[in-house]
Each structure stands twice: as structure tokens, then as C-alpha cells.
Amino acid sequence: MSEYIEHDKDNISVGIVEKKFFTFADPPSEIVLESGARLGPITLAYETYGSLNADKSNVVLIPHALSGDSHVAGYYEPEDKNPGWWDNMVGPGKGIDTDKYFVVCSNIIGSCMGSTGPNSINPKTALPHALDFPVVTIGDMVQAQKALMDHLGIGKILSVVGGSIGGMQVLEWCVRYPDRVVSAIPLATTTRHSALAIAFNEVARQAIMADPKWNNGNYYSGPKPDLGLAVARMIGHITYLSDKSMRLKFGRHLQDKSDFSFNFNADFQVESYLRYQGKKFVDRFDANSFLYITKAADYYDIEMQHGNGSSVEAFSKTKAAFLVVSFTSDWLYPTYQSKDMVKAMKKNGLDVSFCEIEAEWGHFSFPMNALQP
Predict the structure, then answer these.
(1) CATH classification of 194-299 is 1.10.1740.110, yes or no?
(2) Of the residues 21, 75, 166, 245, which has the fewest C-beta atoms closer than 10 A?
(3) pTM above 0.90, yes or no
């Protein structure tokens, strides 16, 4: 790693970072997924920041959310203008201080940002997996991360920190590998999706599958379902915001005009913003990965999968100290869901703290505001 880069007087970055790759589970030693299917070989893209201390006791693992990747902080080249997705949080002197901690972030399986997913080449056919890729779960993602930790020689993790779907992975780490996790910080997350969250994900998936160019997932050699994916992102993006944030940011302001167009162009600023977000997403993400990851999030249910229907029983398997964080305006994963998990943790006598942060930006508050020093 190079010396720190100061892109502005208030933001010292971890500097130039490198995306690395770890491949494992070569046949016949594939991993067995929760569905019963076998997957291998598997490649994980990952990045590390800071230095591992002598007894390997300073490791912080950061699982990412739906559209995130392994690039949590820093820059790939000095002229980069866009740092990692949580650069305001990870770095020297920041909330997760890379002068103190050895930070690891890997791209989840099922994604399209360097790790094995539906857009990866199937060695059996020399073609992209597409929908032949098996459905994966949050547990499968964590199982793959555990293989990476073993590869890096890391036995215990000082803290697992993540928000949204990353927060689900935090919880899964704690119940699946309780002896490996010292502390955990799940942010803006839930133990299982509500009907509302599942409904929004399903509408988004249907938008993709209704695009004729989706072609039952086999679009890699031709036109891609850009319109369907853009609409899916627009739907998801609405759930990440809040009524107040949208009122403050957009209101009913028109976009570069003084009156209605009386057609179906983007008259309002909020329309223009959503179309922009959809187009930007299409340029960097894979439609099939969106299907797989949202389905994994919908399937996640810590009570049923680890507690016979009881969150108290599920958390009885954990040993970590917890800091659970929610945001007042997050209506996708509202505070009551965080409070429910805190109650279950407390009933097990766990060391748990809870913080509800006053924030107006909805679910997006987690990458914007959380744990700033």
C-alpha cells in the first residue's frame, strides 16, 4: 500500500489499494449450499487495508450491501475521483481506523463485482452461468467469507461491521461462527424481511424479468435488460430514501423548466433523479445478480434458520458483544426491527448496546452518517 492520499484537507484516504482474488472449492471439493446444490470453483474478490498485528487480533471484517463490492475505501489510481463506497468511514483516524485495524472487505458470491456469480464463466460450458447459477443465501455468502478468513490465517475477528444486507451477514457470522467473532455492529438491518421489503424486491425483480431483453437470464451475448434493471433500481432507490429527505431535496421542483411539458418526459426533479440513478446502475451492475442477491435477502430469517422460530433461541448461539444501530427515518428496516433483535439479545444476557441515530436520509443514512468520529 502506498502512502496516504489527501484528496482534500478534510479527507485523508487509505491511499492506493489493490483488488485481490482468492479461488477455492475446486471440484470435487465444492461447498454445499443451503439449497443442497454444490458450487465450485469459487472466486472471491477482496481488499485489505491497514496492517495485521502480530497476534492477528485487530481484524475488522466489513460485509457490503446489495450493490456494494470489495472496494470499501481508497483509490485504485492516484487520479481516481471516486473512492471506495465507505471511504468516509474507513481510513486513518476515521470511525474504522486503519492505523489501528486490519480491515477486510470481500465481494459476496452471487454478485458481479469480481466474485463468482451468474455472470461468471461456468467451467463446464465455457459460457456465463446465467440462471444455471444456484440460488445462494446469506448463509452461503458468509460460508464463503469464512473460507477467505481461513485462507488469510485469521482465526478470530475483532469486529464484523455492516449495514443493510451487510448487516444480515454480520448477524449470520455471529450465529454461524460464534467462536470466531468478538464483537459485531449491525447497522440499519433486520433479522428477516418484512412483507413490505419482500414486496418491493419482488416488484423490482419483475421489472427485470418483464424486459424482453432479459431472455430468461441469457442475455450475456446480446442486448442486456437495461430498462428492466434501471426500473428495478429506481424502485429500490425509493425505499432507501425517506419522505423528509425527498421533500427537502426535491419537493415538487421542476427539472430545468418553468412549466409542465404535457408529455411523459421527466418534468419533476425527482423523476430526473430516479432516471439518472437507474441509468448509472445499469452501467455497473448485472441484472441477474440483482435477482439473486435480493432473493437471498428475502430468504434470510434468523429465527427460522437458527432458532426454530425464535429470535431468542437464535441469539443464544452467539457470544459476541453487539452494538445495534438504527436510523429514525429508515422505513425499509425501521427501528422497531432493531429493537426486537436487541430484546432477544438481552434475554440471552449478551453484552449489547443500542443506538438510534436521528437522521433524515432514510436507509441511505447508514453509509452517509454511521459512526463518524
Answers:
(1) yes
(2) 21
(3) yes
